[in-house]
Amino acid sequence: MKNIYRIVFSLFFLNMSMISFAQEFDASIQFRPRYEYRNGYKELIPDNELPTSFISQRSRLNLNFKHEKLSANIKLQNVRVWGDVKTTTTSDKNGVMLFEAWGQYDFNSNWSARFGRQVISYDNQRILGEIDWAQQGQSHDALVVSYKKNKMKLDIGTALNADAENLYRDLYTTNYKNLQYAWFHTVVKDFQVSLLALNTGFQYEDAVTNELETDYLQTFGTFLKYKKSKFNTDLSFYTQTGKSSSNTVFAYNVDLNMKYNFTAKFSTSLGYEILSGKAQNDSSNKVKSFAPLFGTNHGFNGYMDYFYVGNHKNSVGLQDLYLKLNYTAKNWKFSLIPHVFMTAADAIEPLNVTQTMDSYLGTEIDFTTSYQLHKNVGLTAGYSHMFATKTMEVLKSGNRNNNNNWAWVMLSFNPQILSFSK
Fold first, then answer.
1. b/e string for 217-226 if b means 16 or more Cβ within 10 A?
2. Using CA atoms, how far apart are residues 336 and 355, in angstroms rounded to an integer?
């Protein structure tokens, strides 16, 4: 940990020495420990396994700088589980990493360019999001050029990834090899309209020729939002085309959410989402399962992360019918969300391949509550329970008859330690 402190304080005092040249500078820290009890999280717990519990923590230092047409941001973070160290108790094996490190130049009041490691997040974060729930979050090494005027904004971004400064071409599978996208957003009276076009290149080695190949996956879609008085609704529709491991892709995602505010304290939402999948008896080589790619998937399809959080890829897809009940009282917030899950394509009985299984996967109940202790200190907790069916058990393994649940408590400590403006 000594090396961590040296890096943090060196950067801090470096920025302090530059403060006389800055119009705006601020620094803040975040400590976010989270306790979790996992007893069937992400998958049904097997009979021969016991539940586990641990505390993970994110520690961040945030530095923001702005001077005339220039702005910059650095976020350093350490993510670890309490007690997770090397063979000695004095060295943290996780170390410090850059979550964000970008610079931005404003050409004029309309055009700007941002380069470096940055969060790319749009709309409801279904395709591109920060994934703030994950302690490590999600950011991209990219160049993003932005145009904005009145109520209209256009972002055009690109990225190119490699493992190191190599002399020759090598295989890169850590993430996407390259990425290009355009996002357009505008407001027309009570409507918000967004359009997204995303092209993502994934590299692989051809099993026959041993040549390095890159397949390109295209994601196109729109996010629409309408809000008036106590009612608001949003609708998103995305399609995917292109190639995946040389196989043709055609998949889709539709999500409709309707919200009504009965009072200033109480609101309810009703929604339905479908992510296309591929039937287990479909012998074609086409990819029909939709991939949310870089979205904040924890915020969708249940907090127990049974779907699309490092899992459920190239599967039978998903239908999610959900209800959200929200209540706010002073510093308290409460939320209750039941989900009814179904497959989007046929699942087949493993002992009889001619028989289709029930599409109903199960029901998950998510309850969360939060309390704001201070403007910079918040406490959040949650409990989730999965009531699974035989179909879920076949897809996810484990035992549906076990008590499958998950609980957590998280403290967010976010003080600002310095702010300067002239």
1. bebebebbbe
2. 36
Q: Which residue has the tokens 């923590």?
A: 57
Which residue do the tokens 């996002």 mark?
183
Q: Which sign does the torsion angle of CA 223, 105, 113, 117 carry?
A: negative
For residue 254 the two structure tokens come to 């539709």
Helix (H, G, I), strand (E, B) or coil at 274: strand
pLDDT at 394: 94
For residues 321 and 292, is the Cβ–Cβ distance under 8 A? no
DSSP string, 68-85: TTEEEEEEEEEEEETT--
Q: Give the residue among 132, 124, 135 at the shortest CA–CA distance from 300.
A: 124
- Which residues touch 242 (CB under 8 Å, ≥6 apart)? 199, 215, 216, 217, 218, 249
Closest CA to 67 of 93, 103, 37, 32: 103
pLDDT in tens, 249-276: 999 999 999 999 999 999 999 999 999 9
Residues shown for the chain: 422
For 268, the token pair is 């309810």
- Per-residue pLDDT for 397 more than 80? yes
Contact 7, 359 (CB under 8 A): no
SS3 379: strand
Which residue is listed with tokens 């700088």? 65
User: Is the whole-model pTM more than 0.70?
Assistant: yes
Averaged pLDDT of the chain: 93
| Cβ neighbours of 207 (radius 10 Å) | 8
